[in-house]
Amino acid sequence: GAGVSQTPSNKVTEKGKYVELRCDPISGHTALYWYRQSLGQGPEFLIYFQGTGAADDSGLPNDRFFAVRPEGSVSTLKIQRTERGDSAVYLCASGSGKGGYTFGSGTRLTVV
Amino acid sequence: AQKITQTQPGMFVQEKEAVTLDCTYDTSDQSYGLFWYKQPSSGEMIFLIYQGSYDEQNATEGRYSLNFQKARKSANLVISASQLGDSAMYFCAMREFEGGYNKLIFGAGTRLAVHP
């Protein structure tokens, strides 16, 4: 596609439930990044994929968070046993590795 | 240690005037890149301008310019002739080149309000 697509745009879930957030990057972009942005703060790095493999997952806050990119294109961020503190906007970006990054519009996750 | 520092939580500017948004960074890498993004209330992150650590000239993109002072580790964004549509959050970010990683590290942002 022309841009980075993230679905759903909004997700409300109950505390303790499992959620999946999807990111469809720009076609041909090998690098894919997940960020979390809490209200009034800058995006916080979570994980970075180069192709199918996670090149850097140092930003994942704990083992409830997991992300995959099985075919090197679409990525899914998975959050188990959601907590109210997980409420944030989750941003995905893709890049060609040479320069810029294109961000999606984000998924606003609300845990009630 | 904080890698990107934006010390101005909020800034006000009159329409048609210029404004400078501050950014300082911390890295031990010799090769790095500095970015500025705009985030309007709609939430998307819009790329504005990029400066490489080895670029000798300050980057410019239309009304945006980056005042890069390498020795002081600062990369301030200058917006000339402010417009009402410039009201948004502005984020400074850095990419370090270490071990092939090229994630962006963001600052906390500056909220800019342009007044008519």
Oligomer classification: heterodimer
Shape label of chain A: globular
Low-confidence stretches of chain B: none
The greatest interface here is:
A-B, 27 and 23 residues
Taking pLDDT < 50 over at least 5 consecutive residues as the criterion, the unreliable ranges of chain A are none
Rounded radius of gyration of chain B (Å): 14 Å
**Biggest sheet of chain A, in brief?**
7 strands, mixed
Classify the beta-strand content of chain B into a percent band.
over 45%
Cα shape of chain B: globular
- Say how many strands of chain A there are: 11
Rg from Cα of chain A: 13 Å
Q: Count of DSSP helices of chain B?
A: 0
Q: Tell me the total number of β-strands of chain B.
A: 12
Q: Roughly what fraction of the amino acids of chain A lie in strands? A: over 45%
Major sheet details of chain B:
6 strands, mixed
Q: Helical content of chain A, roughly? A: under 10%
Round the mean pLDDT of chain B to the nearest integer and report it: 92
User: What is the structural class of chain A?
Assistant: mainly beta
Mean pLDDT of chain A: 93
Q: What does the model show?
A:
The complex is a heterodimer of chains A (112) and B (116). With 112 residues, chain A is an all-beta fold. Chain A has no helices and 11 strands. Chain A has strands at residues 5-7, 10-13, 19-24, 31-37, 44-50, 53-56, 65-68, 75-79, 88-95, 101-103, 107-111. In chain A, strands 2, 4, 5, 6, 9, 10 and 11 form a 7-stranded mixed β-sheet that branches. A 4-stranded antiparallel β-sheet of chain A has the order 1-3-8-7, with no helix packed on it. In chain A, a hairpin with a 6-residue loop joins strand 4 (31-37) and strand 5 (44-50). Chain A is globular. With 116 residues, chain B is mainly beta. Chain B is built from no helices and 12 strands. Chain B has strands spanning 4-5, 10-14, 19-21, 24-25, 32-39, 46-52, 60-61, 64-69, 74-79, 88-96, 104-106, 110-115. In chain B, the strands form 3 sheets. In chain B, strands 2, 5, 6, 10, 11 and 12 form a 6-stranded mixed β-sheet that branches. In chain B, strands 3-9-8-7 form a 4-stranded antiparallel β-sheet, with no helix packed on it. In chain B, strands 1-4 form a two-stranded antiparallel ribbon. Chain B is globular. The N and C termini of chain B lie far apart (39 Å). Classes of the chains: A mainly beta (112), B mainly beta (116).
